[in-house]
Design brief:
The complex is a heterodimer of chains A (1055) and B (356). Chain A is α+β, with helices and mostly antiparallel strands and 1055 residues long. In chain A, a hairpin with a 4-residue loop joins β32 and β33. The chains are: A alpha+beta (1055), B mainly alpha (356). At the A-B interface, β27, α15, β30 and α20 of A face β1, α4, α5 and α6 of B. β27 of chain A pairs antiparallel with β1 of chain B. Chain B: This is Acidic fibroblast growth factor intracellular-binding protein.
Chain lengths: 1055, 356
């Protein structure tokens, strides 16, 4: 019995009137954990009851503590009939199980009912006493930290990155059980909510066990998803990256963190014991259910870029179920095999970790769902994912890489058809983090200006030391990741290679697509922008295997077209790389939807993109020629305009310094401006680029017409706005503290049943475009601002419905940095100097010990501690061969980094400009409800995250049988989303936090039946609860950081 | 067609202009029209669809907020909407703001269902939408119900319970005071008076004639007139019943005013009538029915005669000053404090109500 859970019910407020006669309520509370229930007294006739209960104590196993939520039910006492439920609160107590997270949950939490929504609030206190775990063969994984953030969390450093962890649990969906026919919708919803809570807890515990076994203490980039498979069941699955994290005390005064070292030591102790207890997945040994037909079609699309996509490589095409089964059996209980997947869910990395990027790898497969016969044996679903991951792995090999970064998995389900997708970015990683070296992970995003400078400083320092030691390859920070990882003579797909425009030493591709965030140290020209490709394809209604085959036949074309669209739009903006690429394919009864979103940038290292050339197939008459040249002009004008808008002016300095063998981009644009005959232009282009396949769109091709149409109908962002779907926007650093997170959902009904592909495309494109336009309008008061982390999710909830849900954050920034700099020139330099001193100090604290550790590693003093799992032999070879080149490069690299520093200095914004806005905001504080900021990003501008309180993972169902009365579908969903936000904020505040970072709405399933006046919606959200302090306050609060922290929860303006 | 369209911010986004249109009772389509006419489309490069979507979103938000606005103190500690405190203050202030034209119409009426039913007439007369009229009426009623039973100063009670700025709280106090005492304001002769005229008078009455005015410690309400004072007012009758006193009073006032006004002769001729009028009003105030007619009496007995004689405001002021002061010099007149308390209010009211 290793834990005691204690709960105290203090009071309620704003309760609903339950007794019409007296306009009052006789409320009492049931507190339930596991099978134990306690009750408070009835507090009669009040809407603001004061229970002030005793401490209810539950003595439980820590395994249960991880799995179960604390369930609080508020009821209205009724002497004569059954007591009426007012609502429930589920409290995830996981954050209390980790010594470094929250210690108590205390505060007002909304009382939620699935039919009525929020009905008042309840004030509770929850604590956990954990006893020493004497049982080494434990099933729990208390103390493992979970982070949604897909980078090493701020205020931690990664000692080691262990690798991929995954798990899935399945169950019957209560909504589809026979009992659902006789119970109320409320009971059914609550059963579902509770089940998903339990499954999430179980999943997290099991993943934690895997992490323990690997010797880690945390999961970063934790991504949990639900598959509502309807009749066939409910799947909760999660992936993440196991790491060993170490807390860095950034505040001099918080140096008293007690929890620094103990967990990792515990881990090591438990390491021996772990493998034997790793029995939770023993189910693999039983044979795979053969009931489901596998429909993974062999197909691979290779296109003239680095997007290596396909729904299965050639190898997997004819694969039978047999070998796979065998494979699975082998994998059973083998911890090493687990790490057979060198996958990382991280999207940004400690500097020096990511060496080279190959390109996007993705795999999809179409499956027919079948009832999960035994919830304890989820091996069918496991096998499906294993298959996909194997495919990804083979793609990675083809790209000459050994790892996948920015890895994610998703599904789309329509009736019995399920599309599984996985994608990531093939890459080569430094082995430093796999071994027992440590690396400082600094949080440069939140403190943009200063840290950027320091980042560059540090990189330079790093390089200096390592290069002279020659112990490992260090790529030039600004361009190294662009250098091709694959063999030049054996390119897996047609691509144009040139020498890197930064270092001139290595080959780079002409275009680079990735799923990761833009590395902070990357050399970028100008700003970035959101680029979307949208596509709708009709399909015939079908059933069973026929339907699945039809879908899998359509998929590659869909992907190819999406890719072409992306490419065209990228070129139209004069850019050459995509980051954060996310391709979503959604399946419906009669159509497939594809939405690809990414952030386009101009990587300085890559060649300038060629223009878009329109050519007629049959140049017969003059009007036709005219038409083409008009269109060409339009396109060229747009490119020119975009280049100006995004400051894409490739630096001519490069040429002056090194002497470019490649023609200047300016020359090329000049070429475009002359509207000579298209054939001539092509040849000229050929000469100047040396490219065989510049984008030539043949206009006779109907697809091309569509493409051009799509290109030119994308409306430009209005002045003052920028947009991206990544963490940071290149070219913008001086964020103010004003942020506004929002969620927007639109559902479009296709009224005309017989729509063509073009018609559908137009509707879908307009839907997305109009959403963006709406955002620009609504957020106009924040300009100049950038919509960051724009995350579009598409779904086809019904035959004729298209649903698009968007979550993003609008962050405003100081526009006139140059002007401000001039005005405050004197002060600025002073303050900056101080900041730099700070940074220096941090280096001394953090970096130097690290580098000495690194030295120790080289000398081989910890050979046993090396990552036991990943087979990177080929990688090691590669590394050694790079070392020679590295030495040669060292000089150039150093020069490069100096250049970066100076250019960033120019951009560094005003610290006082930001603090000024903070001060004015603070005057508004003082409301009785603490402000909780929410953001999909991993940082809060102008603030420092000083503590992670635990993961927030909440699942809610809302149902109504009075849709009209609640304001129709929009009114219903509007209040539900507002309620979800409110509950997230309240739980974060109860944990003692003042913000949620890496927030995402992972599921928003909306169903309606207007005829019956009914609607139902399921929402799943997640994020990391944190405490942050404004940077301006950080400087002032060196004495009492704790108290200052709690106060800042009111500080800053609302978010 | 777009079937569902929502936008929810972590900080609730509210546009002041749209809020005002909502408060004014415009339909979504009318509000969009007004916004288009305001030139927002050119300014923000927005389309009609964008405007429509935004307006709908905001209208929904306001509707959801409305039940919170009924109890403004709840707005600060509710969890559903994260609204910065300055925004909360704006929401409340604007929600409770009312049109003087509307208030003028219902001033002194019973805040009952019957009155609410007649609001369409008020709407037609004032050109304020029925929706807005209903909101304003409900606000009156809500404030009235809450403060009716409360002890202590009226204005302060309103300010604390509804978190309203001082001036608005005073206006509400006037509305509540009028409704409680059912002052007649609808007669034709009173039509020329504005709400602000009455509000000032109400302020005077509340500050001087209620029980709370004498003693703040008194555990009583500001909404009722001080009965004892009304009783004492009867004693003032001596000023008109005692002939000597009346003559003496007249000669004192005439001496003081001679040569200082252009309407001296008219004043001299009318003195007894005017004095009788004012004193009779005082003497009758003990009857609830006569309290209701207070303003009409002031107009009929004093303002109208003066106006027909073309007195200026300066004349009225001069006359009332000396009329009040002279009474204190009268030998046999003993009710100085009651006289001061009465005439102070009467003078302020008449001066405000005297439109030349």
């Amino acid at each position: 019995m290793p834990g005691k859970l204690k709960a105290k019910i203090v009071a309620g407020r704003h309760l609903p009137v339950m007794d019409r006669a007296s306009d009052l309520t006789d409320a009492f509370v049931e507190v339930k954990f596991g099978n134990t229930t306690f009750k408070t007294d009835v507090y009669p006739k009040s809407l603001n009851p004061q229970w002030n209960s005793e401490w209810f104590k539950f003595e439980v196993d820590d395994e249960d503590l991880q799995d179960e939520p604390l369930q609080i039910t508020v009821l209205d006492h009724d002497t004569y009939s059954a007591n009426d439920a007012i609502g429930k609160v589920y409290i995830d107590i996981d954050p209390l199980l980790c010594s470094e997270a929250a210690t108590v949950i205390s505060g007002w939490l909304p009382i939620y009912d699935t039919i009525h929504g929020i009905r008042g609030e309840i004030n509770v206190l929850v604590k956990v006493d954990l006893f020493n775990d004497l049982n080494r063969f434990r099933q729990s994984s208390c103390g493992i930290k979970f982070f949604c953030t897909t980078s090493v969390p701020r205020c931690y450093r990664a000692v080691m990155v262990h690798g991929f962890v995954e798990e899935l649990v399945v169950n019957e969906d209560p909504e589809y059980q026979w009992i659902d026919r006789i119970r109320t919708p409320r009971a059914s919803n609550e059963a579902r909510q509770r089940l998903i809570f339990l499954m999430s807890g179980e999943l997290q515990r099991k993943i934690g066990l895997k992490v323990l076994e690997m010797g880690g203490n945390a999961v970063v980039g934790y991504l949990q998803c639900f598959d509502l498979e309807g009749e066939s069941g409910l799947v909760v699955r999660a992936i993440g990256t196991a790491c060993t994290l170490e807390k860095i005390s950034t505040l001099p005064s918080t140096a008293t963190q007690p929890s620094n070292s103990s967990p990792s030591k515990d881990m090591k102790d438990s390491l021996q014991a772990a493998p034997s207890t790793f029995g939770c997945r023993s189910t693999h040994s039983s044979p795979v259910h053969s009931a489901s037909s596998r429909l993974s079609q062999g197909f691979s699309v290779s296109v003239p870029t680095l997007l290596f996509s396909g729904m299965g490589s050639g190898g997997s095409a004819g694969k039978e179920a047999g070998p796979l089964k065998a494979l699975l059996r082998q994998q059973t209980q083998s911890a090493l095999e687990q790490r057979e997947y060198p996958f990382f869910t991280l999207t940004s990395f400690p500097s020096g970790f990511l060496l080279h990027v190959g390109g996007v790898v993705s795999a999809r497969s179409v499956k027919l769902l079948d009832r999960i016969h035994n919830p304890d044996e989820p091996e069918t679903r496991d096998a499906w994912w294993e298959e996909i991951r194997q495919e990804i792995k083979s793609h990675v090999k083809a790209l000459g890489c050994h790892a996948v970064v920015g890895y994610s998995e998703s599904t789309s389900i329509c009736e019995e058809v399920c599309i599984l997708s996985a994608s990531g970015t093939a890459a080569i990683l430094s082995s430093r983090f796999m071994q027992d070296g440590s690396l400082d992970v600094e949080h440069r995003l939140s403190r943009q200006p200063v840290v950027f400078t320091s980042g560059a400083d540090r990189v330079e320092g790093d390089m200096g030391s390592s290069a002279s030691l020659g112990f490992e390859e260090v790529a030039p920070p600004g361009c190294g990741f662009c250098h091709i990882p694959y063999d030049e003579l054996n390119i897996p797909f047609p691509a144009q290679l040139t020498y890197c425009y930064c270092c001139r030493r290595n080959k780079v591709p002409d275009v680079l697509f990735t799923t990761i965030d833009l590395p902070t140290e990357a050399n970028v020209t100008g700003k970035g922008c959101l680029i979307q490709a949208r596509l709708c394809r009709t399909k015939k209604k079908g059933q069973g295997e026929g339907n699945a085959t039809a879908i899998s036949n359509l998929l590659p074309f869909l992907e190819y077209e999406l890719h072409t669209q992306l490419m065209n739009k990228l070129k139209l903006r004069g850019m050459n790389a995509l980051f954060g690429l996310r391709i979503q394919i959604s399946v419906g009864e009669t159509m497939l939807l594809g939405l690809a979103s990414a952030t386009g940038v101009y990587l300085t290292a890559l060649p300038s993109p060629g223009g878009i050339q329109i050519a007629g197939k049959t140049p017969s008459d003059i009007t036709y020629e005219q038409h083409i040249s008009n269109m060409q002009k339009k396109i060229n004008d747009t490119i020119a305009k975009n280049k100006e808008l995004f400051d894409v002016n490739p630096p001519e300095v490069v040429e002056e310094i090194i002497g470019s063998p490649i023609p200047e981009p300016r020359q090329r644009s000049r070429l475009f401006r002359s509207h000579s005959e298209s054939s001539d232009e092509v040849s000229e282009l050929d000469l100047s680029h040396g490219k065989k396949d510049t984008f030539v769109l043949e206009i006779d091709d109907t697809d091309a017409v569509e493409d051009i149409h799509a290109l030119l109908t994308d409306s430009p962002t209005p002045p003052g706005f920028y947009s991206c779907n990544t963490e940071i926007m290149p070219g913008i650093q001086n964020w103010t503290s004003a942020i506004q997170m929002f969620t927007s959902v639109r559902v479009f009904r296709l009224n005309n049943a017989n729509l063509t592909n073009q018609g559908l495309n137009k509707i879908f494109t307009d839907l997305c475009e109009n959403l963006l336009k709406s955002f620009y309008f609504k957020l106009r008061s924040l300009t100049p601002c950038c919509l960051c982390h724009l995350n579009f999710t598409v779904a086809i909830p019904e035959d004729e419905l298209i649903q698009v849900a968007v979550t993003a954050v609008a962050m405003s920034f100081d526009k006139d940095q140059a002007l401000e700099n001039g005005r405050h020139g004197g002060e600025k330099t002073q303050i900056k100097a101080i900041h730099e001193n700070d940074e220096q100090l941090q280096f001394n604290l953090e970096l130097n010990p690290d580098s000495t550790k690194g030295l120790a590693d080289i000398s081989g003093s910890h050979p046993s501690a090396k990552a036991p799992s990943v087979d990177y032999s080929s990688f090691a070879d590669r590394c050694s061969s790079w070392i020679e080149q590295l030495r040669l490069k060292a000089h150039t690299m150093r020069r490069g980094s100096i250049k970066t520093t100076s250019s960033l200095e120019k951009n560094s914004p005003l610290p006082e400009g930001r603090s000024r806005s903070l001060r004015s905001n603070r005057s508004y504080s003082g409301g009785s409800v603490a402000v909780v900021k929410m953001t999909p990003l991993s940082f809060i501008p102008g603030a420092k995250i000083i503590k992670y309180l635990g993961i927030i993972n909440m699942f809610f169902i809302r149902e109504t049988t009075s849709l009209r009365e609640e304001g129709g579908v929009s009114g219903f969903l509007h209040s539900f989303i507002a309620e979800v936000f409110a509950m997230v904020r309240a739980h974060v505040a109860a944990l003692g936090g003042n913000a949620v970072v890496s927030y995402s709405m992972k599921e928003c399933v909306f169903m309606e039946n207007p005829n019956k006046n009914q609607a139902q919606c399921l929402i799943n959200v997640s994020g990391d609860a944190v405490i942050f302090v404004q940077e301006s306050e950080l400087e002032a609060t060196s004495v009492q950081p704790q108290s200052a922290t709690t106060q800042t929860s009111n500080g800053g303006e609302g978010t | 067609s777009v079937e569902l369209d929502v936008f929810v911010g972590n900080t609730t986004i509210m546009d002041k202009e749209v809020y005002q249109l909502w408060l004014n009772g415009y339909t979504v389509n009318d509000a969009v029209k007004v916004r288009i006419d305001g030139g927002i489309m050119e300014e923000c490069e927005a389309s009609v669809e964008v405007l429509l979507s935004d307006t709908m979103d905001q209208y929904r938000t306001f509707q959801m907020c409305e039940r919170l606005l009924h109890h403004p103190t709840k707005l600060a500690n509710q969890l559903l909407f994260q609204i910065p405190p300055d925004r909360q203050a704006m929401l409340i202030e604007r929600y409770y703001a009312f049109d003087d034209a509307f208030a003028r119409e219902v001033l002194g009426k019973k805040l009952s269902k019957g009155t609410k039913k007649d609001l369409d007439d008020v709407s037609a007369k004032t050109n304020i939408t029925l929706k807005s009229c209903r909101r304003q009426f409900d606000n009156f009623k809500r404030v009235f119900k809450v403060v009716e039973e409360l002890k202590g100063p009226l204005v302060e009670n309103i300010r604390q319970h509804f978190l309203l700025p001082d001036q608005l709280a005073r206006d509400y106090a006037a509305v509540v005071f009028f409704a409680n005492n059912r002052f007649e304001t609808g007669k034709k002769k009173l039509q020329y008076l504005t709400f602000q005229d009455f509000a000032l008078c109400a302020g005077q009455l509340i500050n001087n004639w209620t029980l709370g005015a004498v003693d703040n410690m008194m555990e009583d309400m500001d909404v009722d007139l001080d009965k004892e004072f009304l009783q004492d007012l009867k004693e003032l009758k001596i000023l008109i019943t005692d002939k000597d006193l009346l003559d003496q009073h007249k000669s004192l006032v005439c001496t003081a005013l001679r040569g200082k006004t252009n309407v001296f002769t008219e004043m001299e001729a009318n003195f007894k009538n005017l004095s009788r009028g004012l004193v009779n009003i005082a003497a009758k105030l003990i009857n609830a029915k006569d309290v209701r007619d207070f303003f009409i009496d002031l107009v009929e007995k004093f303002i109208e005669p003066c106006r027909s004689d073309r007195w200026t405001s300066i004349d009225v002021n001069l006359y009332l000053t000396h009329y009040t002061n002279s009474a204190h010099i009268l030998d046999t007149f003993k009710h100085h404090s009651v006289w001061t308390r009465y005439m102070g209010v009467i003078k302020s009211c008449i001066l405000r109500m005297y439109h030349e």
